[in-house]
Amino acid sequence: MSLRLAFDHDLDLPALSRLVTGIAADRAAWSELVNLDIEHRHYAQLCRDDHVDMWVISWMNGHDTGFHDHDLSSGAVAVVEGELVEERLTIGGPPRRRAYGPGTSFEFDASHVHRMHQAGGGPAISIHAYSPPLWRMGAYAIESDGALRRTSISYAEELRPADIDAA
Predict the structure, then answer these.
(1) d(CA 127, CA 143)
(2) Measured over all CA atoms, what is the biggest interatomic distance in the chain, rounded to whole angstroms?
(3) Residue 133 class from Cβ within 10 Å (0-12 exposed, 13-18 middle, 19+ buried)?
């Protein structure tokens, strides 16, 4: 199943937020793509054009993206079920942590470095939109000597915590 949406320009943060909130409310648009796999976080693309791409992501206990960025893309996330935790990477202190439950959403610009994980207590489902569409992401690790390392990965690769990760 793929949504038939078309955009003639990149979307700003308020428009991305409205988009994920609207799609989250339309279960028929994404429910067939939910896959609650204990081993791996499941992500399925809902649509993609020259300006926006959207995903439904299924999360179970222990699923974690690790710290990452979205390269040139801004984004928005709407939580449909369960609870997700977002941690924003900070220098000189612990990550800033915020939990999001059903019916909540948040947005971020392209310079944003964060980590998302399932908060426990059962499955979670979220809708994500990025504009311009994702092509690359940066995955971050803090090495044993304290150096921050960024690895560029394709948008199609699964995000997961690096071997040496900030926690």
Answers:
(1) 32
(2) 49
(3) buried
C-alpha dist (Å) from residue 139 to 35, 64, 73, 166: 24, 12, 14, 12
pLDDT tens for each residue of 74-113: 999 999 999 999 999 888 888 899 999 999 999 999 989 9
Distance between CA atoms of residues 149 and 129, nearest Å = 26
64 Cβ contact list (under 8 Å, min separation 6): 115, 116, 117, 118, 160, 161
- CA pair distance 27, 56, nearest whole angstrom: 11
In whole angstroms, give the CA distance from residue 65 to residue 77: 14
Cα dihedral sign for 38, 59, 109, 156? positive
Structure tokens given for 144 = 């044993």
E strand residue ranges, the chain: 42-48, 53-59, 68-69, 74-81, 84-88, 96-100, 105-108, 114-118, 124-131, 136-142, 148-154
Distances in whole angstroms, Cα of residue 1 to Cα of each of 21, 29, 34, 44, 56: 19, 8, 11, 10, 12
DSSP designation for 109: -
pLDDT tens for residues 20-49? 999 999 999 999 999 999 988 999 999 999
Reduce the DSSP state of residue 14 to 3 states and report it.
helix
